[in-house]
What we know:
Strand content: 15-25%
Distance between the termini: 17 Å
Order of helices and strands: HEHEHEHEHEEHEHEHE
Bound molecules: pyridoxal-5'-phosphate
Structural class: alpha/beta
Number of helices: 8
Number of strands: 9
Amino acid sequence: MNDNARRIVANLAAVRSRIVAAAARAGRAASDVRLVAVTKYVGDDEVAALLAAGCSDFGESRPQTLWSRAERFRDSPARWHLIGHLQRNKVARTLPLAELIHSVDSPRLLTAIDAEAARLGRTSDVLLEVNVSGDASKHGVAAEGLAALVAAAAACPHVCVRGLMTMAAREGDADAARGDFARLRRLRDKTVAAMPAGTVNVQLDELSMGMSGDFEQAIAEGATLVRIGSALFEDVDLGRGN
Ligand SMILES: *Cc1c(COP(=O)(O)O)cnc(C)c1O
């Protein structure tokens, strides 16, 4: 094992134990929090090191990168999550390769995913991205628009909405982030309570929230998917031309 791989193994162990501790503090089972290793900063060697260390869920923010990674690691247990914006013209290539699309934020995108999933004879799992902070630079539907987006999803039988995703407004301010995470959880609870009877393809069990700087706060507020990149690659030399 080279130095980078050794550091990745150590970083992963540290992140996992912080997840376990944060879950314990919140009275939750650590097994209810899934780590999505965000690999957008790194090369294939680092992905391979994470896989060897037992990671199986990986997140990419650009669809094109997800395609090439998923193809390259086709014969591995890796599952690929799209965590960044998806344009409708990239839906067809993304659906067969993505385990979960975290970033659905418009009825038009839902309709495009529904049509492509129908064509493939399957359903596609998605999360609805909510801009809970109202920060204009963030993607996601406004909190006030979520009910309409859920109604649109309910009319897409080949889409299964598993939950909600958000990004905290101010990176580096974990306390402010916790407020955003609490808002997403309350919005989820409210949306579930208001769900029309007979809605079968919208279950909001998953909350994708928390990154390297604030995943413990997210777990305290109920995160089931934490998207962690930089904490896994601390002290890893990424300048080796990959
Ligand atoms: C890059 C990214 C992450 C990971 O961020 P880190 O701070 O490096 O852990 C999580 N979620 C999304 C949507 C991202 O784009």
